Here is the input.
Amino acid sequence: MDDMDHQNDDSFRAGESIDEEAYYDCLEVDDKSDKFLEVDEKSDKLGEIWFPQKKNYTILKQEEVAKLQEDDIAQASTFLSVSKSDACLLLLHSNWRTDNLTDAWFADENKIREKAGLLKKPLDNASEDLSSSCRLCSYSNSSNISASCGHPFCGDCWTGYITKSINEEGPACLVLRCPEPDCSAVVGPDLVQNVMLATNQESECYERYKHYLLRSYVEDHKLIKWCPAPDCNSAIRLDAGCSSTSCYHVSCVCSRSYCWNCKEEENHRPVDCETAGKWISNIFESVHYQRWQNHGKSKEKALEVFDKVKTTVHQELLEGHELDFLLEACKQMIECRQVLRWTVVYDYYNMSDHEAQHPKRRLFGCLQGHAEFSVKRLENQVQQFLSLANSDPSSSSSVVEKKEFADFRVRLQDLTNMTATYFKNLVRALEHGLPETCCDGASWSCESCTYINAMSAVKCGMCTAHIPEGAGYWSCDKCTYFNPASTTSCSMCSLAECC
Here is the structure.
């Protein structure tokens, strides 16, 4: 087994191997009755196996983002009584903050116009007759065009001027100024559209301009961000009011999972964005860094298994048999490996100051070791099925027809849910600083989710389950685990109850 081990003091460390029997002998817990792995009957659907159970974000296609942008422009246009092109320029200047724009507009319209480069009337030195000569090539043309300043230029000069800006200046083309020297008027999107679409040769260049305009809308938006995956054009909109680390874990349709807030590779819970950034910005040669890398390799192996199940296995097994439960198990393996990877960082920044025998450090080691065992157990179940299905390709169809397939499906679904529940509780506990070791006075442990509550609480603060009648618990001096009063030895480390 890779990536798991236990130390001499019976606490477990990530990145090393453990023996399954030895692990349970140490904890003296039955794998079917492990409280930390219990599944809430209300949340045992495969579609809700990971945290957060309810999505707090929306995945938007590029067309949907463009529609949101158009709606904001139309709203500003109506509210400010300006054209949509002018509204677009004003919103661009206000970083697409509609509220900020309207407040500033009604406070001092002329000031906002001046800053945005949107003049209310042509300048005194500009010709009012657009049929006059182009101010660049001096060619007289009845179809000259001007920005809000009134300076006339012919279509060919505008085309060359705008095309050069789009191709060479990139997003800066959105605030392109009039070609007239010292003129502050901005070239609006309506002028760009009219000029660039006048010839089919420049249609591709105009599409690039619209791309920059749409990107600016998302980059300045408070709740929308583009997916960081290469070649992905989707964006993710976070629900209003979400500001905690648990809200930032998102997954795009392109299969890229990451932190919405800092866009760090995948999900870095249980550590926050600041801690993740500190870790990534430094190169560690310590054992922590090696363990972090090892978990990354284990995650890559889990991804390979997922791809294998998604392609090879689906092709080999009979059509009509649902293998979604197998894919969900593989997804859970990937997520668990990612969490384990970042528990190493949590250990480095939060546990290094504690002595080896400190209750919090011992509890962390035990929980981390149990987490590694849980995901390894899930991986073994998946591998067992793959070995069975691939042992004899000619008999693959008969394998799925047998009763063993149905039994395996139920077992794997249960194990997937159990593993997900454990990791959800683990991450929550770490993000809250392992409160199980910080209880003062009498307390009781919830039978449904193992959360440690003050004895004065009549309902669990985690899952709202009521305290059992006559509940009484004692805390182990060695590992701080809360055991029922009826037991005489700790269920976690087997230490006898202190008299």
Summary: The two ends are 40 Å apart (CA to CA). The mean pLDDT is 75. The longest helix spans residues 359-390. The first strand starts at residue 4 and ends at 6.
